[in-house]
Specification:
The longest helix has 18 residues, at 47-64. This protein folds into three domains: 3-39 and 99-143 and 269-330, FAD/NAD(P)-binding domain (3-Layer(bba) Sandwich), CATH 3.50.50.60; 152-267, FAD/NAD(P)-binding domain, CATH 3.50.50.60; 349-462, FAD/NAD-linked reductase, C-terminal dimerisation domain (Enolase-like, domain 1). Helix content is 33%, strand content 26%. It has 467 residues and is of the alpha/beta class. The chain is built from 15 helices and 23 strands. Strands 1, 2, 3, 4, 5, 6 and 18 form a seven-stranded mixed beta sheet that branches. A five-stranded antiparallel beta sheet has the order 19-20-23-22-21, sandwiched between helices. Strands 10-9-8-14 form a four-stranded parallel beta sheet.
Length: 467
């Protein structure tokens, strides 16, 4: 007899874990099929290991730059194998606590090991187990995409899935791709004494972010000797004298780049294979499973969340979509997964994004927008911390905030206030009624809000009581 559940989740990464925990809190009978390790890409190949690497890299950078703070600078002695060992210890600490399978089993969640396949709208096969269920939630994630570059497979390369499995990283890297993972890693590598070159196909790295702040970030990376190349077309890869060589053009001119290892970071591909989706007629596209604004596929009992649904490929988006899907399944009314998604690239300084860029706002609203900008050179905390090279940009339409972009230390922490303001349809001068702690970098947000409030007050100065 098949086992019967309220919900079967396929995949126990960022989306699956949070969705399962939420469903279990509703006293639902939940099973999760997982073919690999609990924790998914975030724990094992993405957010956690990359940020652990960046933490070590930041310490090394501070040691080199200590003379800027009145302390003798030193060239750090970096044991890269110990750096990689620390990365694995952080992963194991999380795997043994918050992401421990036993923690989820204690909630009443059944974890079924193995590859899962849909054999009906309400049936999942995992090995010799048949799981009947009211609903299915697909949280199978994605994997690094590999471009069809001649010679790449023969030369060999690493991706985010294999980079952190190395015992000792190579002496130099060339990264193919200019998205967040690539930009973070080449800065981290360079700070750890690993020369790194980034090759970006288009005219700018981080093409989804605010161009004005991206350009400023690239200047800062190049000042740290990070080798950023744009307008690159890769033609082939070869191995010469023990080095891996990328051949192509830069700005239309022939060029080549050699290193001990290649890293491929050109985007993600959804893990849709082997799920039985075609047999059920579930629609898919180039970005993954097609869902409506409630997270449902065209088969009403089957939902998808996270990278597999192809909307926003972030850990926090996967968790949000997973919870919203469960809400839609089991509560009255309709859930929606249409909230704006802020994000952050964790370079140093960080680059955070919410809502529309300036060009996107002009395309949508025409000239009826304003851009409010403050360099951190006017922020007391940033100047005290020696981190005044960044900026805060806020885009408004008829005074309502529609976009926000921050290049600053801890920009990822700062962006939430502005993301909430966008979601709630707040005007910039509305933020002036809240006090921002001084001295913080967030004071720049309060200062821009104050500018908007002062502008409004100036228009109303005829109301001022003179006597």
């Amino acid at each position: 007899m098949p086992d019967r559940y309220d919900l079967v989740i396929i995949g126990m990464g960022s989306g699956g874990m949070v969705a399962a925990e939420f469903a279990a809190s509703l006293s639902l009978k939940v099973a999760v099929a997982e073919r690999g390790r609990v924790g998914g890409d975030c724990l094992w190949t993405g957010c956690v290991p990359s940020k652990a690497l960046l933490a070590s890299a930041k310490i090394a950078h501070h040691m080199r730059a200590a003379d800027e703070f009145g302390i003798d600078a030193v060239e750090p002695a970096i044991d890269r194998s110990r750096v990689w060992s620390r990365i694995r210890s952080v992963q194991q600490e999380i795997a043994g606590s918050d992401d421990d399978p036993a923690r989820f089993e204690a909630m009443g969640i059944e974890i079924v090991a193995g590859s899962a396949r849909l054999t009906g709208p309400s049936r999942v096969q995992v090995g010799d187990r048949t799981l009947d269920t009211r609903y299915v939630l697909l949280c199978c994630g994605s994997r690094p995409a590999v471009p069809p570059i001649p010679g790449l497979e023969d030369a060999g390369f690493v991706t985010s899935e294999t980079l952190f499995e190395l015992d000792d990283p190579p002496a130099s890297f060339v990264s193919i791709g200019g998205g967040p993972i690539a930009v973070e890693m080449v800065q981290g590598f360079t700070r750890l004494g690993i020369p790194a070159t980034l090759l970006q196909k288009g005219p700018r790295v981080l093409p989804k972010d605010e161009p004005a702040l991206v350009d400023r970030l690239v200047e800062m990376l190049r000042a740290e000797r990070v080798d950023v190349r744009v307008d690159v077309h890769t033609e082939k890869v070869s191995v010469e004298n023990g080095k891996k060589v990328v051949h192509g053009t830069e700005g239309g001119k022939p060029a080549r780049w050699a290193a001990d290892e290649l890293m491929v970071a050109v985007g993600r591909a959804p893990n849709i294979e082997g799920l039985g989706l075609d047999d059920l007629g579930i629609e898919t596209g180039s970005t993954g499973v097609i869902v409506d604004n409630r997270g449902r596929t065209n088969v009403g009992t089957v939902y998808a969340a996270g990278d597999l649904a192809g909307r926003h490929l972030f850990t926090h988006a996967a968790a949000y979509e997973g919870v919203r899907a469960v809400r839609d399944m089991f509560f009255p009314g309709k859930g929606k997964v249409t909230a704006g998604v802020p994000w952050c690239t964790f370079t140093d300084p960080e680059l955070a994004h919410a809502g529309l860029t300036e060009s996107e706002a002009r395309e949508r609203h025409g000239d009826a927008i304003e851009v409010w900008h403050q360099d951190l050179s006017h922020n007391d905390r940033a100047r005290a911390d020696g981190a005044s090279a960044g900026a805060v940009m806020i885009v408004t339409h008829k005074k309502t905030i529609v976009g926000a972009h921050i290049l600053a230390p801890a920009a990822g922490e700062m962006i939430h206030e502005l993301a909430l303001a966008i979601e709630e349809g707040m005007k910039l001068n509305d933020l002036a009624q809240f006090m921002h702690v001084y001295p913080t970098v967030s004071t720049s947000i309060g200062q821009l809000a104050g500018d908007a409030a002062f502008e409004k007050a100036e228009r109303l100065r005829w109301l001022v009581r003179r006597k």
